[in-house]
Amino acid sequence: MLRVEDVTVRFGAAHALDRVSLDVADGEVVTILGPSGSGKTTLLRVIAGLQRPESGKVLLDGLDLEAIPPHRRGIGLVFQDHALFQHRDVWGNVAFGLRMRGDAGGDIDRRVAELLALVGLSGYERRAVSTLSGGEQQRVALARALAPEPRVLLLDEPLGSLDRRLRDRLLDELEEIFEELSVTAVYVTHDQSEAFALGDRVAVMRAGRIVQAGTADELWERPVDEDVARFLGIANVGDGEVVRPEAVVVRPARDRGDGLVEDAVRTGPLVRLRVRLDDGRRLEAVVASVHHPQSGARVDVEIVPEGVVRLR
Amino acid sequence: MDADRASLSARGLRALTYGVPLAFLGLFFLYPLAAILARGLRSDGGVASPLDVLTDPLTREVVWFTAWQAVASTVLTIAVSLPAAYVLGRYSFPGRGLVRALVVVPFVLPTVVVALAFLAILPDGIERGWAPILVAHAFFNVAVVVRVVGTFWAGLDPRVNEAAATLGAGPWRRLREVTLPLLAPSLAAAAAVVFLFSFTSFGVVLILGGPGYTTLEAEIYNQAVRIFDLRAAALLSLVQLACVAVTVWITLRLEARLAVAGHLRSERDTLRRPRTRREKAVVVASLGGLAAFLGLPLAVLVERSLAVGGGHSLEAYRALARPTSAFLATPWEAVLNSVLYASMAAVIAVVVGGLAAFAVAAPRRPRFLDGLLMLPLGASAVMLGFGFVIAFDEPPIDFRASRWIVPVVQALVAIPFVVRIVAPTLRTIDEHQREAAALLGASPVRVRREVDLPIVGRALAVGAGFAFAISLGEFGATVFLARPDNPTLPVAIFRFLGRPGELNVGQAYALAVVLMGVTVVSVYLVERMRGPGRGWI
Fold it and tell me: Is this structure's pTM higher than 0.95?
């Protein structure tokens, strides 16, 4: 089990991490969700040993890692920019960690082939990394980090630089790989859908603090404050209240109606409706039908009470 | 990395990269420097105070000549080089890479060879004096301007000029108001380097200067070797050191500005084929003129080495195998000595300079280190040689009898060049690559070996090649230290020149041709190894 205890890091006067604590159980994937500059990457660097915390501890299976340099921690990291060794081919990249731990030649070849098969790059051994596409480079980076069987795998926005379709595909693959190898992982992202898709638990970071942690459902059900709600993608926030969009029921007006549909945008299977109520309030609703009210239509609006979260 | 600091191997690595260069420079640079200082300020029997030497009209004359010839050489070099820099900076044409490579040849040619080439080509009467010195300095330093300014020029966005044209600026207005201001940082940096080399020029001045035209560097040699006034030589060394330190400081600052100005575009976007007949004529004329300026003296040098008696023969070359009264060895042994010494010097320079480059390129480092490691660049060669003579001639360190003394002093001259070649490559390595290697289980030492070394290997090889070429032609320091039974090529050439008789002069030319050949071959191999670079070296 990985445990981060009260870690603080300061760059100059600014807190990069402010008394951050986090537990990751064996085989668990925790995603860290936060905007850029919230300290996500710094947290990963502290865990990896690349950044020394000003105070606080990192423990792995009860052992304090403070005195252990990065190369002896057995923690893998997939960098956002891949950080592949440009002067080595695909084999040389994936085999690197195996060579460092002193594996025999035959074992290395077998393991590299195994990992390339896992990430769908069989036969790529002799390719120069500079000839690979962005997605292929990301797979090599993943295979390289997984090869020496790290006790914890850290991933720093690994899909950040890829286009949407490729990202969705790799996301599915990552999920399968994590499942298959029962990897213990900390995955950093600023993308809510990525965080929800991969994380057994999601920790939301803001300004160097973890402001809320829990399963995707828990977060969605009870966001701890307005900012978290907004960051999760909930627009109906205000007056100490969060109204989850699926709790806003919208029907074509039977009579005068309660408001006007200002905008209807399809995002995949769902349609987001922006409704202006006659009292001036604006609400966002989600419907899952092709026969949804169009922009400009008058609608009746009903709010399911369970979908309203009162913030303290 | 912070976490590395905890580990012993990281500390060992740091000690190695800082300790070896600092120990080497401390013993072979600072200690001789201190010896010079001590000798210069000690009053021997109260004959004269140090001020007497410094206020001597002769000293003032020497400083004045050193300064103005350096300024004039710089202006001349830029004037000669700009057409070629323009062509290399604006046009792509077959053989462009070859031109870039060939232009370096004069720069690495031994000063003695260049001086001889101009002795050979200039008519009697004006073959010695200030004019040939300026021309020879321009010949040497064309590479600096063409490569620095040409490469920078190639990085400028041509659309800026096109924009100026659409706003109504004619060709001259565009040159004056757009191109030249944009080029200014590179021109300033190149000028500073040329000034530095012209200011510390020794071989050229010693051979081409004749009476009355002597620089600080040559005067130090005169005082130390011919007049044997070590104290005057020491004091002049200090004057030289002060002047050069200021110049180096300015040079490094100008070069730093060059790096900041670096929003340079890829050459692929800026260069184009010469299209019109006029453009083609400009390319041919610029490069042809440069080729004549650089090629003619060397061609005449070869011709002179063959001219013996009335006709042409290989007599001068054949005589190289025979013992000579000029020194206690056959000239061919000087060739072997030179290659041997230069190889040893290259090894030392790469080890010490390579480690120093690692220290200089480290992300967090004490700033003073950069300056300290660049100091020998500012110390003139003659000063180094002279410093060795007075520092290592008696216990505790009697080093003069050692065969290592020549390679060590040559390495000292070459080390700053090795650092300048290797450090930029090291700085291009993404820190994430090192971190990735560490997280995959590589210890700090292993990270250096697995990540840094393979990437920097080629730069190290190039550095070794340059160190070899520089050591091969090194004259200013070696002339103090090479023993009569173990002369190097440049020293042997100089000795031959000092003797009367056609065969002696012929042998000097023949040896110069041999030296030129070895140098050109080593530079050719170096240029084949390296990719396109932005710097002049």
Answer: no
